[in-house]
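Fill in residues.
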């Protein structure tokens, strides 16, 4: 079956935990954002009894397991236990995560290097399907998430990256819903196919539903696929809605094999890139603030995050990898 791209938000809260909107209101808001799917993940609460369609909107069952040691999203199946949970030790987390996976759920660790609520246990001890690399609007903690995830890829670990708005409400008039958006390459718009594609790393994460899109292929292979390395192997890169000053980078493992900063806004940018070695390829778009905005951001991050005062280049969009075998 030919795959299609589906836009969604993987991390949403309603008034049944600490959000500011009812489930029905949130569904309508996601429709207005032109999303295809949404996952409601209230804290320690199965607020969606079973995945369902509301018109064309796929509403996927979810829950955010929440306690001081860390936050974990469970998608597609109910958490086997009823709240309140005992989640204090590494053993508590291991037991409930394994039971969720045994029940058929997809499990994602949330904002693992968040300054305020990180995952405080050993991340490599748990069978996570996904990691929430990008949580809410862009900030420095997300770059720490990205660096850890890339480190796992370099170790050969196939853990898929996702993004989620962690939406509770807009803040100071800033519309935070679907920022970022996870765009999934799935066989159909069903809970089973969307979640399978996410587990397989068939997702691109971008700033918002109508933001830049990265298409990275290698012959017939798309993100999440594995191909054999051959002589003169090339990757094809297409970027839509590329903004002036944004930089495209393609990596072959940790090596930069292509880099270009846009000199103007471009509706569609295309190029081919030589693949040099086995491992994986991935692509990302980054941007940097002007000096004045960077100064303001330093003040904001020093107030709300455990920031060292530096403001890195931020991600505007990025892909999961295509795996390259020798």
């Amino acid at each position: 079956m030919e795959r299609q791209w589906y836009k969604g938000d993987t991390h949403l809260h309603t008034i049944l935990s600490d959000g500011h909107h009812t489930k029905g209101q949130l569904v309508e808001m996601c429709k207005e954002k032109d999303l295809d799917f949404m996952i409601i993940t209230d804290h320690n609460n199965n607020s969606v009894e079973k995945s369902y369609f509301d018109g064309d909107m796929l509403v996927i069952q979810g829950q955010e397991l929440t306690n001081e040691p860390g936050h974990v999203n469970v998608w597609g199946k109910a958490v086997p236990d009823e709240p309140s949970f005992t989640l204090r030790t590494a053993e508590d987390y291991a037991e409930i995560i394994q039971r969720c996976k045994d029940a058929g759920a997809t499990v994602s660790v949330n904002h693992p290097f968040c300054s305020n609520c990180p995952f405080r246990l050993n991340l490599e001890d748990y069978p996570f399907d996904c990691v929430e690399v990008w949580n809410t609007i862009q900030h420095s903690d997300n770059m720490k998430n990205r660096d850890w995830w890339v480190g796992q890829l370099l170790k050969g670990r196939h853990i898929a990256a996702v993004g989620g708005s962690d939406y509770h409400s807009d803040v100071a008039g800033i519309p935070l819903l679907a920022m970022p958006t996870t765009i999934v390459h799935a066989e159909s718009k069903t809970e089973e196919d969307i979640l399978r594609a996410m587990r397989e790393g068939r997702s691109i994460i971008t700033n918002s539903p109508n933001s830049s899109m990265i298409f990275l292929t290698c012959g017939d292979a798309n993100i999440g696929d594995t191909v054999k390395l051959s002589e003169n192997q090339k990757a094809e890169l297409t970027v839509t809605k590329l903004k002036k000053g944004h930089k495209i980078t393609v990596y072959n493992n940790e090596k930069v094999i292509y880099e270009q900063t846009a000199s103007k806004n471009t509706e569609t940018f295309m190029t081919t890139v030589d693949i040099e070695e086995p491992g994986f390829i991935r692509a990302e778009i980054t941007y940097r603030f002007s000096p004045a905005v960077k100064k303001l951001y330093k003040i904001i991050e020093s107030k709300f995050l455990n920031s060292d005062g530096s403001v890195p280049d931020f991600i505007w969009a990025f892909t999961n990898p295509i795996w390259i075998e020798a």
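Residues 156 and 279 are 8 Å apart (CA to CA).
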